[in-house]
Structure formats: structure tokens, C-alpha cells
Task: inverse folding
């Protein structure tokens, strides 16, 4: 079991990811047991695959999986009985209706309809998703529903658990915990596994990831340094891994080679130099900004050496920008296609390919990006 921690994406790529894939690629296609790479989202898998293809590393025999896919692989060798979400809603609604029984006496009936547990059960019967989500969150945190001071819902939850047990089902957090405990005792299910991209925001997946790591003959886990906005949460995440599998090895940063990629010596001395590698586009609103980005992408695509274009957008702007670029009134269908085919990146992601340096466009017309002087 190898545990690494680092703050630099480039250092993790050069010192951990590439060596791991180069080693695994030599033997993964010859082994009967699977070699897995567990990532939180498909976008992480696409980014790593692009990096490996650029470096000429084979992916034969290496399978990228998300947490739900890892759970399916683990359930194939165990007795996980995970119900559908629709089944859980029905069982919870039945439990709530059972708590809404009314006495035959009219006076007692009216009094019963005003009690807190009756009103709570009535609310759950109409919309069971809210309580079901709360049960999942408490179970993923390792708590029982009795730890929450909600006496009006306690009977509904108790009846729901009885119905789940009678149907032979298990809740997802219970299955993950049992899989983690059984993985330590059972024979290895995988030959090699790499876990990367997870942090303190993925606490509900802790037991599942621990089960996957314990089910492999060789396991490597890549952790990120705690983020400033969630330092206590990430520190607890890293500490839990170290408590279970030993101390994490820090990833040595890559050597920074001095270059003139940002500022030349003449620029640092104050000599006016015309900007050749950077373009600053300003728009009055989001529509103008998106149109400027589309025109800039067309300018990049005019270069025959352009392989991939990375478009960095804030997380809150991704849906808005995609909607605008796909609007019928957008100026150029080719521009819309270029934006949709480019790689959309958030601040927490890194581009595997960079757009090329600005080159003269082969078009006879001069390029006039949408700009606004301040």
C-alpha cells in the first residue's frame, strides 16, 4: 500500500501518475485480475487518458471506474443487496402511512391529526425524499438516526428499517461498510488499483474506497494537500487515510526551469514590447464574452498545429456559457461547434493540452476579436 500527498498537479503527474501507468501498462494486459483507476468523475478519467496518450503510454488492460462502478465490481463477489431508489421511497411511504392510523372515536381522531408525529408522518408520506436523504447522510457519517433529536420521525424511521430488512435489502452505506470489513478477510479481487482525485468532499465514499484498496494486491492512493477553504475537513480526510494505511509520502515538487515564457528580459527592464503571445478580450456582458471566446477559438483552429483548445470557465458560468454558445441567435455555427468541441475546465481542473501560441491566420481577412476599451 503506497500513500502519497502533494499540492502540485505537475509534480503528482510526473512523479506518481506517469511512473504508475508506465509500470502497470507492462503487466496489466497479461494479468487475469483487473487493474483499476478509481476517480470521482469521468472528466478526471478523460484528463488522465489524454495525458497518457500524449506521452505514448498504453491503456491496454487498465480500466477507469467511478465510485458506482467500483461498488458494482465489489458486489459481484459479495452479497450486496442494494435496492433501487424507487423501492426505498415506496418503503418509506408505507412506513409513514402506518404511523398515520386514526382511532375510531371522532374526538380522538381530530386530536390525533394535530399531533406532531402524525403531521410529520403525513409530510413524509407525501415527499419521502427529504427524510431518505437525511437517513443516507447520517448513515454515511457513521451515525444512527437516534443521534438526531427528531422524536416525531423516530417511529417512521424505525418502521422503515424493519421493512428494508424484511425485503432483504441493505442501505448503501451499510453495504459499503460491510464490503470494507469483508475485503480485509477475503482474497484480493484486483491486481492493482490507483485512487486519485478524492478529498474531504467525498466523505460518504470513505468505506467504499477503503474496500477497493483492501481488495487489491497492490494499491496506490494519491491525496491532495488540504484546501484553504476546507482545511479542517481535508486534514481529517488525510489523517483518516494515514491512520488506516500508514503515513503518506510527500511528493517532491518538480524543478522549475527559468524561461521567458511570461516576461522577457527586455520587458523586465522596462523596454516596451508588443504582446505577441497574449490577448485580452473584454466584453460588456456574458454574451459578448462568449462571442469573443468563440472567435478566439476559431483563430486558434486556423493554425494547423493546434491539437486541443482549453477553455477555462468559473464553475458557476459553465452552464450559462454552454447555453449561450448553443443559442440559435449565435453568430457562427462553426464557432458554436468549436466551443463545444473544446475542453471546458473549472478552476479545480488542469488542462492536459494548451492552446498554441498565436499564429497568423491563413484567412485573407484580418482577425478582429470582440474587444472593448476600458
Result:
Amino acid at each position: 500500500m503506497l500513500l502519497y500527498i502533494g499540492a502540485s498537479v505537475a509534480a503528482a503527474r510526473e512523479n506518481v501518475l506517469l511512473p504508475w501507468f508506465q509500470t502497470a501498462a507492462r503487466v496489466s494486459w497479461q494479468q487475469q485480475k483487473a487493474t483499476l483507476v478509481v476517480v470521482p468523475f469521468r472528466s478526471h478519467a478523460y484528463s488522465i487518458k489524454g495525458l497518457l496518450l500524449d506521452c505514448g503510454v498504453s491503456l491496454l488492460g487498465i480500466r477507469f471506474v467511478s465510485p458506482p462502478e467500483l461498488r458494482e465490481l465489489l458486489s459481484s463477489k459479495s452479497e450486496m443487496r442494494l435496492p433501487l431508489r424507487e423501492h426505498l421511497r415506496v418503503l418509506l411511504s408505507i412506513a409513514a402511512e402506518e404511523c398515520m392510523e386514526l382511532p375510531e372515536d371522532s374526538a380522538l381522531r381530530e386530536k390525533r391529526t394535530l399531533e406532531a408525529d402524525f403531521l410529520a408522518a403525513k409530510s413524509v408520506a407525501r415527499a419521502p425524499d427529504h427524510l431518505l436523504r437525511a437517513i443516507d447522510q447520517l448513515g454515511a457519517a457513521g451515525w444512527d438516526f437516534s443521534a438526531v433529536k427528531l422524536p416525531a420521525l423516530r417511529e417512521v424511521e424505525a418502521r422503515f428499517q424493519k421493512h428494508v430488512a424484511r425485503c432483504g435489502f441493505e442501505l448503501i452505506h451499510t453495504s459499503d461498510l460491510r464490503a470494507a470489513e469483508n475485503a480485509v478477510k477475503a482474497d484480493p479481487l484486483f491486481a492493482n488499483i490507483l485512487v486519485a482525485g478524492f478529498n474531504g468532499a467525498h466523505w460518504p465514499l470513505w468505506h467504499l474506497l477503503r474496500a477497493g484498496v483492501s481488495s487489491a494486491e497492490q494499491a496506490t492512493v494519491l491525496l491532495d494537500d488540504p484546501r484553504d477553504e476546507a482545511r479542517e475537513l481535508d486534514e481529517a480526510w488525510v489523517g483518516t487515510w494515514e491512520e488506516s494505511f500508514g503515513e503518506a509520502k510527500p511528493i517532491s515538487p518538480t524543478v522549475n526551469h527559468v524561461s521567458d515564457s511570461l516576461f522577457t528580459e527586455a520587458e523586465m527592464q522596462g523596454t516596451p514590447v508588443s504582446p505577441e503571445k497574449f490577448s485580452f478580450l473584454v466584453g460588456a456582458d456574458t454574451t459578448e464574452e462568449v462571442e469573443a471566446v468563440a472567435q478566439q477559438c476559431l483563430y486558434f483552429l486556423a493554425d494547423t498545429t493546434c491539437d486541443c483548445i482549453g477553455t477555462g470557465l468559473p464553475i458557476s458560468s459553465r452552464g450559462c456559457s454552454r447555453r449561450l454558445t448553443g443559442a440559435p441567435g449565435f453568430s457562427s455555427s462553426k464557432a458554436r461547434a468549436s466551443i463545444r468541441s473544446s475542453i471546458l475546465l473549472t478552476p479545480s481542473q488542469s488542462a492536459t493540452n494548451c492552446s498554441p501560441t498565436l499564429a497568423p491566420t491563413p484567412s485573407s481577412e484580418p482577425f478582429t476579436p470582440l474587444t472593448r476599451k476600458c
